[in-house]
# Entry
Amino acid sequence: MLFNKDYAYTVHNSTNAGKEHYGILPSVAGAKKAEIEKFLKEFKRVWDGRVIDRLNDKNDIALTVLGITPNQRADEIRNLTYKNYFNGPSPDRAGKPGDWWEFGMKLMQEELYIKLKTYKIKGNKRVKCMSFHIAERPIKYPFR
# Structure
């Protein structure tokens, strides 16, 4: 199958030369560039800049390591484009409404993992930013 730059293909936890990484494989699971842009536009329109508090401190540690504020983090997230995309949409494993989209970016020499979603409750559009932390493994960006 030929790679089509309009689609992203991903698989998690593949192994290449003994290194765990995010890779690309032909699959129907990837999103088209236009779908990613539509998702990001809607997310940015509704998002208030907050990141969900996690049981672990990954998101807060990232701010300290990077030396940035929550407002600067929000600016970085608002600057995401389809080129930062690497996976999704993926169903919420907890069975909650909406799908998760995964993005990455380089900031201060660190690769970051960013996980976002949009969903509706009682007809109202809602969004969540679950993750903004140092990536735990390298990310392959299918649109770069």
